[in-house]
Amino acid sequence: MTDTYFVAVDWGTSGFRLWVIGRDGSVLDSTTAPLGMSRLKRNDFDRVLEESLDKLGIAQDVPAIICGMAGAAQGWCEAPYLCAPTRLDALGEGAVSVRGATRNVHILPGVKQMAPANVMRGEETQIAGLLHAEPSFAGTVCLPGTHTKWVQVKDGAIQHFETCMTGEQFAFFSQTSVLSHSMILDGWSDNAFRSAVRLATQDPVAVPRRLFSIRADMLVRDQDSATARATLSGLLIGQELMSVVHYWRDQSVTLIGAPPLCEIYLMALDFLGVGGRSLDVETTTLAGLAAAFHIQTGTVHA
Amino acid sequence: MTDTYFVAVDWGTSGFRLWVIGRDGSVLDSTTAPLGMSRLKRNDFDRVLEESLDKLGIAQDVPAIICGMAGAAQGWCEAPYLCAPTRLDALGEGAVSVRGATRNVHILPGVKQMAPANVMRGEETQIAGLLHAEPSFAGTVCLPGTHTKWVQVKDGAIQHFETCMTGEQFAFFSQTSVLSHSMILDGWSDNAFRSAVRLATQDPVAVPRRLFSIRADMLVRDQDSATARATLSGLLIGQELMSVVHYWRDQSVTLIGAPPLCEIYLMALDFLGVGGRSLDVETTTLAGLAAAFHIQTGTVHA
Question: What digits encode the pLDDT tens for the residues A96-114?
């Protein structure tokens, strides 16, 4: 692999994804591992990275650029937040060099917002990837996931953003809470999802008392698991959408996330008459890491 | 203990509480154990009850009356739901005799509601206890807990009720979710609670995007644990209150629950200009079980 240029890593809370990038910008190899920040101590990161790269035969003189929770205070090496509004070419400029690392490693900063208080680590790099592909992009980006981000982008910068814990709440309600007993089987119902989105968007204030009905509907009416799961998802996403209505009213939404999740967000937005599109999360992450790498190293982007 | 009359048991999901009642209606003895429905198989209930009563020296000819999840389909012996609206003297009439039990055991039914679907098991007995003390009571009862119930009572009957999963959500957010990292220390702030109740009641739709701010406020502003915990509680309770506004607007609320929890609900209601009072949950549970026992056995209430 004589043409290896750098290693790009998205290192999150629960795992990491790593790509080996060639001088022509192509992906030469990649790997993932469930070794996220939450399972690592500060001294573990270097070893974990080197072991992964050793398996792929990557020499120690190949530099690495990392985004995500590895840059958190509890991560490998803190990369202080940029403060929104912030241009995203500042990501590469703000990259922090990790002292004592086996190889040349830089970690990208996250973005914070002071009022209302908010933080992101990782999503800013995906948005940088979107801006690399579409430099004049302006509008709303939604990055659905454990903590879904809604971001207003303009003039190459993150202007403002909000976070909803919808993914983490869905996991809790569907896997741990009393509602989990009503969705022990797999399955999904688009109709039930749309009905729940309608209920939640027409009367978002009622959602707290509608959640338990998912359990009761099974007990008194034998409602099936597919309906229960889709109803839960629709209530939570509908409630989220009403919470960030200023992000999507009268404009289309660009989604970046796991394809199945983007699909149901698009379904909910479509129900509300809002247009949208979804972008591949791996492509945008890689593009953002590559753009930051080139800025950090002062090289011309491939 | 020659004057033992019957045994009253509140057998819930996570544990049970048992009282030995004398012929004069007094409590002769009591015990608790963390052996709730969720930890027991159907065949375990009889053994657990007998071991507890054996330790207290209660003979096998003393009958027992039970309310709560022991009567669920997954409990000891299913006691089919009464259907709201339902008078609460029907609890004793609907008590189910447990076949094969070592002693004479009756389990009280819960209450279901068809539209919107809802269920309760245990809270109906507490309301029966309230009605025993105040037969002409009419109004709203709130039973805060893991699954908080809001109940309209009139003409000796449960007319209508709602359930909010606020307690279960608070436990999740404060102990498991990413917000837990912002409230690892103990503490509470009445001011932060009231501020959050104000935010949530003035703009309930915004609550989903305000939750993550609890985490971000610590990261960007070093907010303390006491403020974080009280803010979480205030946002969730405020959101719940707006969801059931038809239960408390223009009327006072009678709370039945754990005293510290009743206290913060009263604080939130007071902030909204709503009057309230709290009743002792043990007293009301016992009164409800005793009333049902006397109806079930056709005896005159002590």
Answer: 999 999 999 999 999 999 9
- What is the pTM for the complete model shown? 0.94
* pLDDT tens per residue, range A121-137: 999 999 999 999 999 99
- Residue pair A139/A156 in contact by the 8 Å Cβ criterion: no
B115 touches chain A (CB under 8 A): no
Taking the CA of residue A208 and the nearest CA in chain B, the distance in Å comes to 6
Cα B104 to Cα B102: distance, rounded to the nearest angstrom: 7
pLDDT tens digit string along A158-216?
999 999 999 999 999 999 999 999 999 889 999 999 999 999 999 999 999 999 999 99
Provide the token pair at B251.
Answer: 């009327």
Measured in degrees and rounded to the nearest 5, phi and psi for residue B95 equal -60, 140
Chain A residues within an 8 Å CB radius of B199? none
Residue contact B208–A164, C-beta within 8 A: yes
Backbone φ and ψ for B31, nearest 5 degrees, come out as: -155, 160
Q: What angle, rounded to 10 degrees, do the helices at B207-221 and B190-202 form? A: 140
A184 CB neighbours in chain B (<8 A) are: none
DSSP-derived pairing of the beta strands A27-33 and A16-22: antiparallel
d(CA B108, CA B294): 12
Check if the beta carbon of residue A1 is closer than 8 Å to that of residue A28: yes
ipTM of the complex: 0.93
CB contact under 8 A, B164 and A208: yes
What are A104's two structure tokens? Answer: 């040349």
Q: Which residue has the tokens 């009591």?
A: B30
